Amino acid sequence: MSARRAASSHVAAGVVVRLGRWAVGALRTASRVAAASALAALGILFLNYVVLSTDKARAYRDLDPNVAECRDGLARGWTILADTGRETLQTAIPSDGDGWVDASDDEGAVVAADARWGTRLRCALQRHVVPARAPGGRDLAYHLGFIEFQEDGEPYALVSREGAGDAAVDSAMLRHAMDDEMRAKGMPATMVKPVITQLDALKKHLAHGSHYVIAFVHGWRHDARIGDGNVADLRLYAAHAARFLAQRCPDDPSVCDMDVTAIYVGWRGARVDERGLRTWFGDAVGGFFGGLSAGATLFDRKPVSEAIAPGAISALRTIETTLSAPGAHNKLIVAGHSLGGNMLATGLQDDVVKAVRRHRFGETLPPVLGNLVVLINPASEASKWTAIQREVWSHLADHADAHTPASEVVRDDGYFPADQRPVLMSVTAALAFPAGGLRPGDCAWIGLDVADGFAAARKRIRSRLAATDRMFDAGVDYDWATHDLFPTFKFDFRPAAGFLDRVAARFEGRPPRGETCTPAAPVGLGAGLATLPVRTLSLLAATFPFQNTAREDSHTIGNLDPPRPAAGVLADAQQSAAPFGTTHELMGLDAPGLERHHPYATLADAAIDCPRSDRWLTRARLARADRRGNFWDSTDLAPRFPQEDSLHENGPAARFLHGLQLTGIAPITRPNDPFWNVRAFDNALSRHDGYRLSSFICALNQLVMDDITDAPAAMSDHQDVPGR
């Protein structure tokens, strides 16, 4: 026995020794992996924050307008971008897809051809012209100004000579400019304010004349550098606006002399120099690694956008005040894209909540900034919008019950009057119809053929689902950045799990779950095995413990849909128990000429029709008078009033719908509510940056340019107006 015990002890000791060696080896391996991971992380940080980093404190458009070349450009107007663009279009490959890039609006090409434009395009205020080539055509002219901010929200000073530092204001030139202004106005020196910042230059420009102003706050991965794509996007919007005003001029002389001024609010949204990577390594390799490096900077840039918000809002309010001189006939639309939308949502949230809190029943809520604020695919927490919705909700009787009579609910329709216009709008490229997806029983109900009062609704739903199926077959161009990426950085992996499931579904040839009633074909063994890792990762992401499940904090403004009630069918309008989130829908109209991209250089001659659309919102609400104005549709308008001019009897260039129609959810806002949280289909707004369709640009401008509601005096003659 003793020998056996000795042998057993020897074996046990050997096992312990081997386990110990294995444990030591495992610890060494783990430590090496940890060290390698730490070094890789440090390497990525060093790469992003040192090697590939953009300049931390630099203004790109800070040349004083009084500099000779800037002054000459303002006097004559520059056609160089359009001229160069037309030449480029002759050799460019035409593309009208959702990844459209305007080859005719490239500052880089202009500078490459003539280096002097590298200085001229630094001017803080510029005037551009798109010449008409057709006989009898009209040139399009507009001004382009810049306001740039440092990361702490401080503005930049103007410089008055090429190569000057950010704070190097040439005092001699400044005194010369002040002397010129004194002589021109006959004013003493103490009354002349020096032009020192970009904002000062814009104030001086806007102080006289009639102006239509488009202010644009760019987003993530952009700044004000020469050649930036968002600067080109703003020029496209400005040229469109000039075209729309020219079309209105014969019928409305007040807009004939209105000058379009586009204001680009710049900040360091590009933390990584992606353009440099593409220059060094080519579009394929440099673009891939640039996108990979930039992806890690989303929430590095998001706090910066919020830090800049107070400075940006104060600058925009200064512009608003300048345009509000007595007797002035000026317009101001403010738009923010991506983190630029977050900047506006952050800076305006408290002001809007306060405005609602002070609002008096039945009075029109005035605009919160300019005439309209638009957030385009905002990368901002939904809570910044639901805070406003909760404030409105707290003042209204939401639904009738034992303690709230139906008459009180109807009365509260008038909290905002029938002539209320939208003042704050968010528009996001949504993923699917219906909002919230299909339930298992929905498809069975949709397929019924019975006379139960819902036959017409089922027909419309089947038609829309057929369109949705076609969209999924082609690939839905939704805003992946705010729908999937933003929640992932907020530690909510459920949208990412849905994305992985859709990837697997497309590879397997089956429709995505909950988004179609088309029966799924059997998945082959090979396809099932190939997608097993993706489906496994999707399951892990969906069920990952301790992730952030607070949807209002992890989802973005336009990707929070109100939950569908447990009862009812898609054609019902049941009250949601959490009436917060998206409120409207937007679709394209397939309008000839508008429902496509028009290159910048061709806009003076392009076949674009954006007519006046007066009173359409009032007439849309009246057409649903039997439903108290709910579920209004901009393509279904009440007959025009006798006093209306038939020339202005047009709806908007895109289709706006109140509520989430045919989803089983009652509208969570009243028909006259001024806060529109719009989920858009990809034939109106696509992807994260697909906001350049002429129809979309026209529809936004119509909300500001036109009298879309009736004045109170005109409305008093119509007794069926919702809320009266």
Query: How would the global form be characterised?
Result: globular
Give start-end ranges of low-pLDDT stretches.
164-174, 713-724
Largest sheet: 10 strands, mixed
Total helical segments: 22
Relative helix content: 40-55%
**Average residue-wise pLDDT:** 86
Return Rg in Å.
29 Å
Let me know the number of strands: 12
End-to-end separation in angstroms reads: 103 Å
Structural class given helices, strands, pairing?
A: alpha/beta
Strand content: 5-15%
Strand order of the biggest β-sheet: 1-2-4-3-5-6-7-12-9-10
Task: Please provide a written account of the structure.
Helix content is 43%, strand content 9%. The N and C termini lie far apart (103 Å). With 724 residues, it is of the alpha/beta class. It is globular. α11 runs parallel beside α12 (383-393). β5 (331-337), α11 and β6 form a beta-alpha-beta unit. It contains 22 helices and 12 strands.
Structure in a nutshell:
Helix content is 43%, strand content 9%. It contains 22 helices and twelve strands. The termini are far apart.
Name a few traits of the molecule.
724 residues, disordered C terminus, 10-stranded mixed beta sheet, alpha/beta, globular
Topology readout:
Blueprint: H1 2-51, H2 68-76, H3 80-91, H4 107-113, H5 117-120, E1 125-130, E2 140-148, H6 171-185, H7 198-206, E3 211-217, H8 229-248, E4 259-266, H9 274-295, H10 298-323, E5 331-337, H11 339-358, E6 372-376, H12 383-393, H13 406-411, E7 424-429, H14 440-446, H15 455-474, H16 480-489, H17 494-508, H18 525-543, H19 551-554, E8 573-574, E9 584-587, H20 616-623, E10 655-658, E11 664-665, E12 675-680, H21 694-705, H22 712-715
Parallel strand pairs: 2-4, 3-4, 3-5, 5-6, 6-7, 7-12, 8-11, 9-12
Antiparallel strand pairs: 1-2, 9-10
Helix pairs in contact: 7-10, 8-21, 10-11, 11-12, 16-17, 17-18
